[in-house]
User: Which sequence fits this backbone?
């Protein structure tokens, strides 16, 4: 293979003229002959035994050329891409296939390539870091959630109120007639959960144990049972039991039951420290996003549409994979959401464009700084990927090559470099933290 010429035909589009030698063509036609001879019948020869020359004499010298070209093309194209030092971002369009007696053949490949990137200043970017203080009220809110998770339902003798769990019998009627699925006995319902038709749960509030009453509602217009949609209904109900959540006392004994700590104060201190660490991560991530956005804003680059489209497809595949891990797939997801593949692509497009721009900007920093990934860093990255996917390193390498791993490492190093060179000032929000005690 030889690259005859490489030229830019329009912005981000390159034309390659590639030659394949007669020797390479003949080797490929021989491979095509061996692959197909078993299916060829020539008079005077047993099926699969006809010589290559006889087949070409009967059907033409170019009989095996199509298969030969398909065999040669991938290697010839990749070699030409490497020699031209370009980075394609889409499938090439191939045409102008010309065979010359005794000289092999030539073909043209037109391909969209990664664009040139000009980045502005990326050192000394000024950023304000907002670090919110963790207030006592926020710690108390987390403690309340913990109590809620460990609460238990207990029966009470009073009128029902919102957030109670009641046990009821009910039977529904439309136009005086009972309907299928409208009857139950001993049904548990949390008031305020929104599990029943709008207006149903609110009418149980204030009722007492043993009380029989009617609940009047109207089915929503979009109700799943078409025969009931939009119709007024009456439910004859009887209330059997009322339960409320009894929360545990927030004290040392409770803390011992739900954590590795012996005292409430120790648990609160640990909880606050973890919340502060999480808040710091949020602030750091926000800083990183601001820095990247700044570099992107000062970047000059005409991004080819195929790059964005490819990233959209990557995101669709990732989303599908996550669904499958949860026992679902795209087809089922579309059924429940009313979305379709084109709609999903449209939703992903803005995020895909941002990610492509960010990647190009950071690759610009990599190029400007001459950042490289060492063999040790690449090996460590493979180890991390293997752990994440639950695979052997060699298995991971079947799907991800060294070049991709190296680029990812270099981009992360570029982010670190920009962050280290940035001028970051902290602006903690002022707030009152007077309520230091946690009420049970």
Assistant:
């Amino acid at each position: 293979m030889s690259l005859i010429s490489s030229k830019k035909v329009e912005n981000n589009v390159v034309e390659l003229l590639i030659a394949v030698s007669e020797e390479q063509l003949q080797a490929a036609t021989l491979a095509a002959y061996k692959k197909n001879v078993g299916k060829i019948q020539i008079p005077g020869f047993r099926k699969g035994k006809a010589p290559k020359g006889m087949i070409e004499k009967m059907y033409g010298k170019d009989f095996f050329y199509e298969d030969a070209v398909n065999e040669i093309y991938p290697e010839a194209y990749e070699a030409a891409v490497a020699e031209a030092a370009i980075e394609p971002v889409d499938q090439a369009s191939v045409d102008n296939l010309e065979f010359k007696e005794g000289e092999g053949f030539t073909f043209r490949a037109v391909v969209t390539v990664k664009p040139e990137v000009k980045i502005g200043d990326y050192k000394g970017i000024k950023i304000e870091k907002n670090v919110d203080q963790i207030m006592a009220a926020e710690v108390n809110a987390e403690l309340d959630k913990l109590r809620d998770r460990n609460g238990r339902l207990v029966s009470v003798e009073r009128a029902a109120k919102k957030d109670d769990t009641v046990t009821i019998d009910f039977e529904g009627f439309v136009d005086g007639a009972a309907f299928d699925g409208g009857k139950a006995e001993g049904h548990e319902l949390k008031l305020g959960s929104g599990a029943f038709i709008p207006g149903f749960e609110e009418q149980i509030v204030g009722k007492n144990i043993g009380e029989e009453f009617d609940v009047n509602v109207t089915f929503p217009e979009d109700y799943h049972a078409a025969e009931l949609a939009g119709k007024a209904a009456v439910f004859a109900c009887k209330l059997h039991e009322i339960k409320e959540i009894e929360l545990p006392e927030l004290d040392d004994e409770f803390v011992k039951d739900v954590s590795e700590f012996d005292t409430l104060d120790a648990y609160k201190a640990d909880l606050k420290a973890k919340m502060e660490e999480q808040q710091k991560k949020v602030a750091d991530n926000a800083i990183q996003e601001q820095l990247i956005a700044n570099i992107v804003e000062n970047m000059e680059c005409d991004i080819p549409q195929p790059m964005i489209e490819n990233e959209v497809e990557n995101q669709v595949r990732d989303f599908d994979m996550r669904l499958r891990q949860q026992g679902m797939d795209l087809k089922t997801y579309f059924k429940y959401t009313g979305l379709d593949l084109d709609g999903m692509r449209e939703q992903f497009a803005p995020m895909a464009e941002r990610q492509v721009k960010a990647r190009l900007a950071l690759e610009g920093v990599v190029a400007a700084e001459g950042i490289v990934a060492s063999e040790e860093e690449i090996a460590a990255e493979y180890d991390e990927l293997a752990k994440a996917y639950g695979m052997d390193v060699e298995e991971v390498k079947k799907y991800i090559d060294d070049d991709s791993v190296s680029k990812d490492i270099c981009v992360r190093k570029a982010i670190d470099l920009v962050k280290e060179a940035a001028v970051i000032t902290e602006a903690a929000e002022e707030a009152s933290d007077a309520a230091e005690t946690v009420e049970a």
